[in-house]
C-alpha cells in the first residue's frame, strides 16, 4: 500500500495560519491502514489544531470528513455541497489523493497534512518497509522476488557494485546488500542462472507523469470513439 | 474500605485501559480538563495481554502531542495498580491532584472564557 507520515505539527500550523475555516479531509484507504490520515488521525489533528490556535489567539473553525478514497472522482464528489463553506481544505490522503482533491476543487486552496513516502509492506502494527519504487519494468522474476531498485542503495539492476561486503551494503554494515540477498535466494531455489539475465536500462528519463490503462479499458475521452 | 480521594476527580470507566484512545485524552484537555490520567492494571497482568501497555504508549504519544500544541505534556499521566489496591488508587488520585495544582489551570481555560 501507499504509506505516509503526518507532517510536523509546526509545518501544518504554518500552512493554515491565514485560514479561519478549514475542512480536514481524511482518506479511508491506504493512509488509514498505515495510521497516517484516516478518520482517527483527522480527529487527533483537528483537536491539536483547535487547541494550538486558541492558545495563539487565532481561533480556527474546523470541519472533518473522511472519504472512502481521495483518488477516485466519485468519492470526491461527496464534498461538492460542503466545500464552499470553507476557506481551505486540509488533505490527509497521499500525494495522489491531495492532488486529485485540488484538481476537483480548483477554486479552493488544498493543503497537505502528510508526507507521502512510498509503497510499503506492513511489518508490524505501525511499522512499514518500502518494497517498490514503481519503476514500471518489474524484474522480480529474475531477482528471486527481491527488488533491486528499492533494496539496493544504488538501484542497480545487474548485479552488485564493488562495495558489497560479506552480505552487507557498503553504505552501512546493518544494511543487507540487495544483490547478496538475491544471490542467496536464487541459489536456494536452484535457479542461480537467472542472475545472468541482463536487465535493460529503465526509462527513468520519461519524466512526464506515467499513465496506466488496463486491457479492455480506454481513456474517458476515447469512450465511444 | 471507606477511603477518601480528592472530590475534583471525575472517573470514567472503561473495560480495559487498552480502550483509551489518543483522541479521548486530547479531547479531555481540549474541553478544559486541567489534567487526565489513566489507571491500568500492573504491567504484565493485563487480562487482554497488552491493553495497559498500549495505553502507556498512547499516553506517551498524547504527552508529545500536547507539547507540540504548547500545553505541558505532564498534564497527562499513566498509573498502574492491581485491582485489589484501593489505598493505592486513592494515593494516585491525591498525587495527581497535587501535581496538577502545581502546574496550575489548563491554559486553554482562560482562552475558552474569552
Ligand atoms: S488517495 Fe487513494 S492511493 Fe492515496 S491513500 Fe487514499 S486510497 Fe490510497
Ligand atoms: S523492479 Fe522493483 S521498483 Fe520496479 S516494479 Fe518491480 S518491485 Fe517495483
* Range of strand content of chain B: 5-15%
Structural class of chain B: mainly alpha
Total count of domains of chain B: 1
Q: Would you tell me which CATH topology of the largest domain in chain A applies?
A: Rossmann fold
* Number of discrete helical segments of chain B: 4
Query: Based on DSSP secondary structure assignment, what is the total number of beta strands of chain A?
Result: 9
* Count of DSSP strands of chain B: 2
At the first level of CATH, what is the class of the largest domain in chain A? Alpha Beta
Rg from Cα of chain A: 22 Å
Name the features.
heterodimer; A: 225 residues; alpha/beta; Rossmann fold; 2 domains; four-stranded parallel sheet; three-stranded antiparallel sheet; 7 helices; 9 strands; elongated; B: 114 residues; mainly alpha; two-stranded parallel ribbon; 4 helices; 2 strands; 9% strand; globular; binds iron/sulfur cluster
Descriptive report:
The complex is a heterodimer of chains A (225) and B (114). Chain A is an alpha/beta fold and 225 residues long. Chain A is 26% helix and 22% strand. In chain A, helix 5 links the parallel strand 4 (88-91) and strand 5 (110-112). Chain B has 114 residues and is mostly helical. Chain B has one domain. In chain B, 46% of the residues lie in helices and 9% in strands. Chain B has four helices and two strands. A two-stranded parallel ribbon of chain B has the order 1-2. The interface between A and B is medium-sized, with 14 and 16 residues. One iron/sulfur cluster (SF4) binds at residues 132-135, 138-140, 147, 149-150 of chain A.
Amino acid at each position: 500500500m501507499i504509506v505516509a507520515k503526518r507532517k510536523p505539527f509546526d509545518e501544518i500550523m504554518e500552512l493554515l495560519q491565514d485560514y479561519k475555516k478549514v475542512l480536514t479531509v481524511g482518506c479511508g484507504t491506504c493512509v488509514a491502514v498505515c495510521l497516517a490520515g484516516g478518520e482517527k488521525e483527522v480527529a487527533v489533528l483537528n483537536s491539536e489544531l483547535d487547541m494550538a490556535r486558541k492558545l495563539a489567539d487565532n481561533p480556527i473553525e474546523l470541519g472533518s470528513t473522511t472519504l472512502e478514497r481521495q483518488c477516485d472522482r466519485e468519492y470526491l464528489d461527496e464534498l461538492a455541497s460542503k466545500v464552499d463553506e470553507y476557506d481551505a481544505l486540509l488533505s490527509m490522503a497521499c500525494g495522489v489523493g491531495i492532488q486529485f482533491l485540488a484538481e476537483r476543487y480548483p477554486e479552493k486552496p488544498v493543503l497537505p497534512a502528510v508526507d507521502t513516502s512510498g509503497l510499503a509492506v506492513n511489518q508490524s502494527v505501525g511499522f512499514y518497509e518500502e518494497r517498490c519504487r514503481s519503476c514500471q519494468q518489474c524484474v522480480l522474476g529474475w531477482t528471486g522476488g527481491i527488488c533491486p531498485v528499492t533494496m539496493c542503495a544504488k538501484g542497480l539492476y545487474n548485479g552488485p557494485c564493488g562495495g558489497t561486503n560479506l552480505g552487507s551494503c557498503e553504505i552501512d554494515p546493518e544494511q543487507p546488500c540487495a544483490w547478496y540477498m538475491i544471490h542467496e535466494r536464487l541459489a536456494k531455489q536452484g535457479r542461480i542462472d537467472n542472475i545472468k539475465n541482463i536487465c535493460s536500462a529503465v526509462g527513468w528519463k520519461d519524466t512526464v507523469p506515467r499513465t496506466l490503462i488496463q486491457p479492455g479499458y480506454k481513456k474517458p475521452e476515447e469512450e465511444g470513439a | 474500605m471507606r477511603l477518601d480521594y480528592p472530590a475534583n476527580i471525575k472517573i470514567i470507566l472503561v473495560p480495559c485501559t487498552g480502550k483509551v484512545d489518543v483522541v479521548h485524552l486530547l479531547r479531555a484537555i481540549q474541553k478544559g480538563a486541567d489534567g487526565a490520567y489513566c489507571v491500568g492494571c500492573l504491567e504484565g497482568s493485563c487480562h487482554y495481554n497488552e491493553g495497559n501497555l498500549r495505553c502507556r504508549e498512547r499516553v506517551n504519544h498524547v504527552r508529545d502531542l500536547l507539547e507540540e500544541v504548547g500545553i505541558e505534556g505532564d498534564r497527562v499521566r499513566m498509573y498502574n495498580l492491581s485491582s485489589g489496591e484501593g489505598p493505592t488508587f486513592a494515593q494516585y488520585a491525591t498525587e495527581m491532584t497535587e501535581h496538577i495544582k502545581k502546574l496550575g489551570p489548563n491554559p486553554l481555560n482562560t482562552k475558552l472564557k474569552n
